[in-house]
Amino acid sequence: MNTQPEARQSPSMQPPPIGMLAELTHRCPLQCPYCSNPVELTRKREELDTETWQRVFAEAAELGVLQVHLSGGEPALRQDLEALVASCAEHGLYSNLITAGVNISRARLEALADAGLDHVQLSVQGATAEVNDHIANLPGAFDKKLAFAAEVTDVGLPLTLNSVIHRANLHQIPDLVELALELGARRLEIAHAQYYGWALQNRGALMPPREQVMEALDLVEAARERLKGKLVIDAVVPDYYARLPKPCMNGWGRQSLNVTPTGKVLPCHAAETIPGLEFLNVGEHALGDIWQHSPAFNAYRGTDWMPDACQSCDRREIDWGGCRCQALMLTGDAAQMDPVCEFSPYHDEIQTLAVIDSSREDEFTYRRFARQPA
Amino acid sequence: MSADTPINDDAGGVPTLQEHDVVKIPRGVRLREDKARGGWVLLAPERVFQLDPIAQQVLTRVDGERDIAAIVDDLAETFAAPRERILVDVGAMLADLITKNVLEVT
Q: Right CATH number for B23-105 from 3.40.190.10, 3.40.50.11540, 3.40.1360.10, 1.10.10.1150?
């Protein structure tokens, strides 16, 4: 097993990143069982302060970042969200608020719009209160989300609806399309769950059966054609059943970076699951230096790290070897080809695993902070 | 060509535009210079459109007030190019951006 990539000289100059995910906090009123945050959550007292985030935004703009996704947890639990949005606007960064939409008052939404917020992405866990509130484990959440969506469009901000898809809501895809249209969203994200962290723990409760996934893909494709010019529909495909790997992050360390609530800079939000990688912190390094020189970013950049079979593959600069975290989880080695690829020796194994998980009837393990040590 | 003649083909759900139509960049979409990479970009939710110099010339003239005819006149004069040709190119470009939800007719 080799999870420690060989030390290698970093290429002279990396092209600048386009997008930055700013995970402002891990605190959240929802407890979705597929949360993309790590299983070990960061507490409030460990979070970066306002000034540090503002410096990070300035450095990001200088580096060439164009879009910032203000995310969490629930970013609106940060009391300084308005100041952070204003900082993005000041530096010309396009700001996208990724929210659960259950704790933002009309007045606060207006303040965020005035501060220069460009776009709101609202999560829904389902297309009905029953499904939504069960998955989020928060009674009343759905009604709050509907009210919030109406306020977003009323204030004049563009709205995207995002729904993570899995066995418990896959049947609602047509309803989610209708809901997006009713709420006046201009964009809908149908994102099949990606099985890392919390979702990995919940795979036996979330993995949908193959034939339903294929049917869902056709439904989304038909809706996308029908609603061209009216609603943009983006889909994140369910890769366990696929033949080709997804171009994870469009290539490791190629276009985007992720800053955690404590200031660690990661090539993707799950990168900390890979043992042996060294991540640098914005508290000690400038963002531009981290992008260029962080050992974690240079570990799987480009194509040099790839196994021979990937290096000689025509798709090496299309899917960039797929996902490192998934390679690690399913093969024990992050430098393996993504086992979703049909040429991987592990390919049949993961398809079998998905079929088995899809027939299990596990209960959700909800996303929660670990109990405080006494 | 009269002012109410469609300036692009109405094919495959692409909107039909006329010279007197006014288009604008909606809220949530921003046009800006991209100093780090050079050139200009149109920023939209989860999407970045890198603009070629022609698209940049067209979009920097889109202000939600001037109609397409006025923009085309301006371009024809600025670049001393045939107006008919510019009209067809601009119509196709604007229609494409409307289909992608990053431009709208007022």
A: 1.10.10.1150
Which residues is A122 bridged to in the sheet?
A99, A161
Distance of residue B48 Cα from the nearest chain A Cα, in angstroms: 8
Confidence (pTM)? 0.91
- The ipTM estimated for the assembled molecules is 0.85
- CB distance A16–B27 less than 8 Å? no
Distances (CA, A) of A152 to A161, A164, A190: 11, 21, 20
Tens of pLDDT, residues A206-234: 999 999 999 999 999 999 999 987 899 99
Domain extents for chain B? 23-105
Nearest Cα of chain B lies from the Cα of A232 at a distance, in angstroms, of 7
Three-state secondary-structure class, residue B102: coil
Q: How far apart are CA B30 and CA B48, in angstroms?
A: 10
Q: Which of B34, B43, B105 to mutate to test the interface with A (most CBs of A within 10 A)?
A: B43
Q: Is A138 helix (H, G, I), strand (E, B) or coil?
A: coil
Estimate the crossing angle of helix A106-115 against helix A81-90, to 10 degrees: 20
Which residues in chain B have their CB less than 8 angstroms from residue A254's CB?
none
Which chain A residues contact residue B28 at CB under 8 A? Answer: 118-119, 157-158, 186
- Amino acid sitting at position A237: V
* A67: Cα separation from own chain's centroid: 15
Look at residue A220 in the predicted model and tell me its pLDDT: 94
